[in-house]
Design a protein that fits this description.
α3 (about 95-110) packs across α4 (about 130-145). Strands 1-2-7-6-3-5-4 form a seven-stranded mixed sheet, sandwiched between helices. The radius of gyration is 14 Å and the shape is globular. The relative contact order is 0.22. It has helices spanning about 40-50, 50-60, 95-110, 130-145, 165-170, and strands spanning about 1-5, 10-15, 25-30, 65-70, 80-85, 115-120, 155-160. It is built from five helices and seven strands. By secondary structure, it is of the alpha/beta class. It has one domain (about 1-170): Leucine Aminopeptidase, subunit E, domain 1 (3-Layer(aba) Sandwich), CATH 3.40.220. The protein binds ligand AR6. Ligand AR6 binds near residues 38 and 120. Ligand AR6 binds near residues 37, 125 and 126.
Length: about 170
């Protein structure tokens, strides 16, 4: 675990399973149809329960680079923020990933949340390089805290599943 402070806000990197995190919202790396059939999405629905998929079905669609919110079901987290990162090869991936994390931060703030935990969006099934993901997510979060000193967000945590991804995030922080 490692953390830094910006304007009395914390950015943290930690290793582990995001479905265990005790924060206001965990972030899901979803697809646009919000069908949570693999990766971290499946783990979240398995532990949180079918209510998360049912609420996602009511929302129906989330464009790449945007974010939507459902309840957290049986998770410790009260909410799940679903964001859709780019698939490697579809084009303009870096800007889309930056847009995804910005959408997450803006939505969390607009809901008055204090703490969120975020996975390495797009670096699994979607094939985006882990080192570039770390750079973009950390850069955009620092920028958000610098530009929004009065945000309700006090903690943005990155919860990384494997050692290699953790090391990239730790280095960038
Ligand atoms: N906790 C934290 N991180 C995890 C966990 C976990 N329990 N499980 C996996 N990861 P992925 P994507 C990491 O594939 O690339 C799904 O099917 C994983 O090691 O979940 O954005 C969706 O429904 C990787 O670093 O998301 C979409 O169809 C990161 O989470 C598609 O995959 C993201 O991997 C989205 O692909």
């Amino acid at each position: 675990m490692k953390e830094i402070q910006i304007n009395n806000k914390t950015i943290r990197v930690t290793k582990g399973d995001i479905t265990d995190r005790d924060v206001d919202a965990i972030v899901n790396a979803a697809n646009s149809y919000l069908q949570h059939g693999g990766g971290v999405a499946l783990a979240i629905v398995k532990k949180g329960g079918d209510i998360i998929q049912q609420e996602s079905d009511k929302i129906g669609f989330c464009p790449v680079g945007s974010a939507v919110i459902t309840s957290g079901g049986k998770l410790k987290a009260r909410f799940v923020i679903h964001t859709v990162g780019p698939k490697m090869g579809e084009g303009d991936e870096e800007n889309k990933l930056a847009s995804a994390i910005k959408s997450v931060l803006t939505l969390a703030h607009s809901k008055g949340l204090n703490s969120i935990s975020v996975p390495a969006i797009s670096t699994g099934i979607y094939g985006f390089p882990k080192d570039r993901c770390a750079r973009i997510l950390i850069r955009e979060t620092k920028q958000f805290f610098n530009e929004n000193p009065n945000t309700t967000l006090k903690l943005v945590e990155f919860c990384l599943f494997d050692d290699e991804t953790y090391r990239y995030f730790e280095k960038d922080l």
